[in-house]
Design a protein that fits this description.
mainly alpha, single chain, globular, 18 helices
């Protein structure tokens, strides 16, 4: 049976040497590792700080939701900067936002301002949106047959982020006893500055006249069945990961578990999100992106089932680990499908539009997560997650059946 996507006939000619390609992949992987700590710090502390500072406890997860809003709001402007001035300029602008979130969040904790902390997490989301575009940048100038591996390898840098982020929180949260987590965000700003230094050495093709013009109308491109399927599966995979990860640290605290246990659970979750990246690209090359996405959705479903069986630390940790692996297969597989839906000159517009939909959907899930946890409990959060998961399974199943009919009629 064929996979749901076929390679584009047009091949993007490399305008950078193989040595520069390898250097870019290495630098983007290191930058992914450093910058990924930004998201981990926000997710590990956002709901806890929100619960402390918010005027209403139902708003405890609002800072994390604002983080996701920042991702959705800034991905299209970042794409426009990349299309006009090149990806590296967009990367450096994102790193600037990474420094800003650390400074503002530390100040918010010191003066006890909930709304300033929300503003800080908005800039954190802006940074995270740019960081996620590293995966597409890794495929620039690469032979189409090797793009999935390059994309996946750069995402693997998140393994280090999964270690650095939680440990950064553990080793700094009590350094300033009067203002818990203030030192954590100062340290996070320093890490963002280091990431910017690494990104200065990235050498990518300058935008061509054709890329600035944009290629085919966007409406024509996004109506492709494969793109619609990729967008739905990518959005659901990321939304459910965010939906459950947003609530998990606070849910663990409400269930009587320690902050250190929550931090470790988040650490293993992030490692599980990114560790498979070192072989996910090979799986996509061998089995096809559609099958890898299917495995990801299945693992997310299993993670929900595990969460429903109990509220011990082990249940939370296993749920988060399976959720991380499922996200990796679902999101990277869907990203590989997106690469098959556009021509080279259309890449920044199509990729940024895809991520806008993904992050916009995440924002809805993030806002709903906090409200459900406050009004009901952790089990309700898990049960509700099954609805979008079913939608993604139906979309992917329909795409596979359509591909099979096309294959048989050819």
């Amino acid at each position: 049976m064929p996979d749901i996507a076929a390679p584009q006939e047009a091949i993007e000619l490399s305008t950078i040497s193989e040595r520069e390609q390898r250097g870019n992949i290495a630098r983007l992987t290191v930058a992914q590792a450093l910058a990924g700590a930004n998201s981990v710090v926000v997710y590990a502390t956002g709901a806890i700080i929100g619960h402390t500072l918010a005027p209403d406890k139902a708003l405890a997860t609002l800072p994390i939701s604002i983080f996701v809003v920042g991702m959705a709001a800034c991905i299209l402007p970042a794409g426009a900067i990349a299309r006009r001035y090149g990806r590296r300029m967009a990367f450096l602008a994102g790193a600037g936002c990474g420094v800003l979130v650390g400074v503002l969040a530390a100040l918010a904790v010191i003066i006890g301002s909930f709304w300033l902390f929300c503003l800080a997490t908005f800039f954190g989301g802006s940074y995270a949106a740019v960081v996620l575009s590293f995966r597409f940048a890794a495929a620039d100038g690469i032979n189409p047959a090797k793009r999935a591996r390059a994309l996946s390898f750069v995402m693997g840098g998140g393994v280090v982020a999964g270690i650095v982020g939680p440990q950064l929180v553990n080793h700094t949260m009590y350094l300033w006893p009067a203002h818990m987590f203030a030192a954590t965000f100062i340290a996070q700003a320093v890490v963002a500055a280091l990431s910017a230094i690494v990104l200065l050495g990235v050498k990518l093709p300058k935008p061509s006249a054709a890329e600035i013009a944009g290629g085919r109308p966007l409406g024509l491109i996004i109506r492709q069945p494969v793109f619609i399927t990729a967008m739905i599966c990518g959005a659901v995979s990321y939304m459910l990961m965010n939906f459950l990860m947003t609530a998990a640290p606070l849910a663990m605290q409400l269930c009587g578990h320690s902050q250190e246990s929550a931090n470790l659970g988040l650490q293993w979750h992030v490692i599980a999100m990114y560790a498979p990246s070192f072989f996910t690209g090979r799986l996509i090359t061998r089995f096809g992106a559609g099958r890898v996405v299917s495995a990801g959705l299945l693992l997310i479903g299993v993670s929900v089932a595990v969460g429903l069986t109990g509220i011990d630390v082990a249940h939370f940790w296993l749920t988060l680990i399976l959720l991380g692996i499922g996200w990796n297969f679902g999101f990277i597989g869907a990203s590989a499908l997106v690469l098959e839906c556009h021509r080279p000159e259309e890449k920044t517009r199509v990729q940024s539009f895809n991520d806008f939909i993904v992050f916009g959907t995440m924002a809805v899930g993030s806002f709903a997560s906090g409200g459900l946890l406050a009004a009901y409990d952790w089990d309700m959060v898990l049960w509700v997650s099954l609805a979008p998961l079913a939608l993604a399974v139906l979309a992917l199943g329909g795409a596979v059946l359509n591909a099979r009919r096309v294959y048989r009629s050819a």
